[in-house]
Amino acid sequence: MPRLKGSAVQGSFTLIESKNGWRGFIDFSGKARRQVSDIRWLSPTQLTFSVDSWMGPFQPVVTLTRDSLTGYVWVGNVRYPTTGSRLAQIPAGIAPVLPTPAQLQRDLLGGEAALWAENVNSRVIDTRLWPRAFVVAERLWSAQDVTDSENMYQRLSAIDRWGTVSVGLQQH
Prior knowledge:
Elements: E1 11-18, E2 21-28, E3 34-35, E4 37-41, E5 46-53, E6 56-64, E7 68-75, E8 78-85, H1 101-107, H2 125-141, H3 149-167
Antiparallel strand pairs: 1-2, 2-3, 4-5, 5-6, 6-7, 7-8
Helix pairs in contact: 2-3
């Protein structure tokens, strides 16, 4: 698949039919194997699926023949042409790079935001939980040597605005 920015993307996808429907995975060259989702057959020879990739949302629409495929891929909001051929066998996957146990222990943080209320339902959870959860999260994502409380309030204000505008929280 040629791209406007960066080198062309190469790889393969494998689809497997079972009694529970279709499942599959995609192998981008040099990347760990990713599961595909939302596999839909648009016709007996045309299909689409979705993958969350490092490029953003990746959704091919391909027409399959006995030995080849043609079509296009949506990456974000850009459409790229794609072509390919049938492989003789499933390619060997690349195992994902996992952190060592020492890295996991060093990077593992945990926190708890208590919710003290007698009546909690979907109408009041935003106003009860999120202001407290933001404070706990702010402490966890900030460096240990960040102790300026005025700066903390500025960061909390920014995340509060983000929660209201981007996520639709109604904590006010």
